[in-house]
Amino acid sequence: MTPDTPAPAVPDEGSVYRGLFAAYPDALLLSDPGGHIVLANPAAERLLGYGAGEMAGLSVDALVPDAIRSRHAGYREAYSHSPRARPMGAQMELVARRRDGTEVMVEIALSPLQLDARPYVVASVRGIEAYPRVRQALQRARYSEFVAQMGRLAVDTRDPQQLLQQVPAVAADALQADACVVFLLEASRLEFHVAGGVGLVLGEGLGSRLPNRPDTPPGFVLAQGEAVTVADFRSEQRFSVPASYLVHGLVSAMGVPLVDRGQIIGVLTVRSRQPERFGADERHFLESLSNLLAASLQRSQSEEALAHAQRMESVGQLTGGIAHDFNNLLTIIQGNLQELEDHPSLAGDDAAQPLVAAALRASRRGAELTGKLLAFSRRQQLSPTDIDVGELVDSLADMLRRTLDQRIRIVVNAAPSGLRCVADAGQLESALLNIAINARDAMPEGGTLSFACEPCLGWPAEAVAEPAAAARQDAFIRITITDTGHGMTDAVRDRVFEPFFTTKELGRGTGLGMSTVYGFVKQSHGSIHVKTAVGAGTSVVLYLPRLKGETEPEASAVPVATEGIPGGLAVVLVEDDPEVRQVMRRFLQSLGCQVAEFAHAETALAVLATGQRCDLLLTDIALGVGMRGSELARQVRGKRPHVAVLLMSGYSAELLQAPVGSPAPWELLRKPFERDELARAIVRAVTANPPASLT
Q1: How far apart, in whole angstroms, are the C-alpha atoms of residue 552 and residue 405?
Q2: What is the pLDDT of residues 234-267, one digit of tens each?
Q3: Nearest to 227 by CA among 273, 282, 184, 189
Q4: How many CB atoms lie within 10 A of CB 70?
């Protein structure tokens, strides 16, 4: 500095301090010993929402949130007794109350100041919500609260429609998005439908559909199998952006898949008018919501399947009871018709005999019907038998022609011979019926359902089989059921045998049909294979063990085996229905048996205890109130081991109630039965356990 250079002007000290106070970027407050604000800089007025000069004279308590205001006077009093420079809020989050009542997160530092021998306090207040890390933490906490809110709703509600309405609203609110939509896949997986949403664009109403293709927004998310972010629709090249998005000013978006047990069932999307609106935190939030929604939809579907199964169980119990009573009626009808058929007065009556024969045929068809009802209610004793597959399929096809959609054409192609297999007839018919119903559902507009039956050696390598059967590769009967429906994708085909898996809409299927078919095939030591393609129909191929040796069908009429029944066989008959008992007595007497009849097991047991002769015990299982016929048989055999036992029932072998590990060895004669069947059953029972009085 040269002597001629003037010295710089020194500003007034007071002006410097006032300028620093006004220019300081953090809020500064000067308060007196009474806790009133003396000075507030412009930064404090901006942070707390006050105008210039409005904070002077204001109590600092006005800046304290209501929740802690009652305690604040104590804190201020404690500081006045030990004033020192120190930060506040080291152990807690601090918030300040703005003039409009809102709150802002802050950091505060206090310093004592002496002016004119009076104590003052300077508070430096810094708003920290603008810090990126704090803003991010607050946003994550906010997202977590919304997820918790949806979790509570998902637990409390059982209505999936309510969730489908609430999830888009919550997502749009949490993300401050302009639109949120839930797309669910149709059962065919060829289309999406809009299941819920807010801020929907033109053509995107609830229930509207769009194709599942990678060039559509939800189809692209599904094809990727993970979250997809769109920074700007105007420059998007990966898929076609609907014009309605741009018309509504939508710019950015994010979509996440809805995943149920490893399979994508839909897409949850959000859209915004702001560019690059969605990042990693938003993706985590959306994925959490999508997981909640998918789990809730899965739970709802499982509960509906369970409720449906329970309804079916109730129907099955009712059906079983009706079939049991009907079998007793048919026993009476058939028994009396056989008596009429053999009655001498009608022997030469050419007009009466055809009428009786027609009535007998009708009663036999009624017995077949009740057998199907019992199989449906799972009260039929099921066991492998020799089956003519061609006859069974022809019979089933006749029934389907009367019951399925008339627009469905049913065709049967069966080899002329060699179609006898070993399987359970009831389960085989049920399995074919399950497949036929699935085929019907795949052809809503009609089509062709064909059955083909032929002998073969083994099955293709991709067929699903029980392991022991796969190693054997014997001769089999191949049954192919083909439809001309919409077919299945590879993903659906791979899960078709999974229990509870179904592509039908809610309430229309339990997902147990094909798993039941698979179980039947495994138990029968066979194999099953599904061939399908989208739009090309489906073929389900069953392989069942072919009958070895003779394949000729059994004779349609078997002579009465009276020659195998010992003369004078003493039969104790126990049957609670008097008319059925009367029919049984006449049958037995016509077979040369001596009959002692009882209505109740207790009465029969008491008489037998007196020494009543008994070579054969013929008893119904369900005898009304009191002892069952199976228990009567056990007690009789316990005291008389040489008594032969033959049980009757309109139900099934489940009523035997044999102890675990010791199944009852007695034959079960299913009602209704004819005299010839009774005679053959008596011969088998007596041969297996010859009575002591006749040996």
Answers
A1: 35
A2: 999 999 999 999 999 999 999 999 988 788 989 9
A3: 282
A4: 10
Measured distance CA(368)–CA(399) in Å, rounded: 13
In this structure, the strands spanning 616-620 and 644-649 are parallel
Strand ordering across the sheet containing 447-457: 408-414, 447-457, 475-483, 538-545, 527-532, 464-465
97/457: higher pLDDT: 97
DSSP state letters, 308-358: HHHHHHHHHHHHHHHHHHHHHHHHHHHHHHHHHHH-GGGTT-TTHHHHHHH
* Mean pLDDT score of the chain: 79
Dist CA 153 CA 167 (whole Å): 10
User: 420-423 and 594-598: which strand pairing?
Assistant: unpaired
CB 369 within 8 A of CB 672: no
H or E stretch at 466: none
Radius of gyration, CA atoms only, the chain: 43
What are residue 456's DSSP bridge partners? 476
Q: Residues with Cβ < 8 Å from 182, sequence gap 6 or more?
A: 164, 167, 168, 194, 195, 196, 197, 258, 266, 267, 268, 293
Any bridge partners for residue 647, and if so which?
Answer: 619, 668
Tokens of 47: 């942070």
CA–CA dist 236, 670 (Å, integer): 72
User: Token pair of 559, please?
Assistant: 């002579």
DSSP letter (8 states) at residue 98: -
Q: In the prediction, which pLDDT does 71 show? A: 80
At 307, the pLDDT band (50, 70, 90 cuts) reads: low
Q: Which pLDDT tens digit goes with each residue over 515-531?
A: 667 777 877 778 888 88
The CA distances from residue 494 to 265, 436, 482, 488, 519, in Å, are: 16, 19, 18, 10, 16
Domains and CATH numbers, the chain: 13-130 (3.30.450.20), 134-304 (3.30.450.40), 382-545 (3.30.565.10), 562-694 (3.40.50.2300)
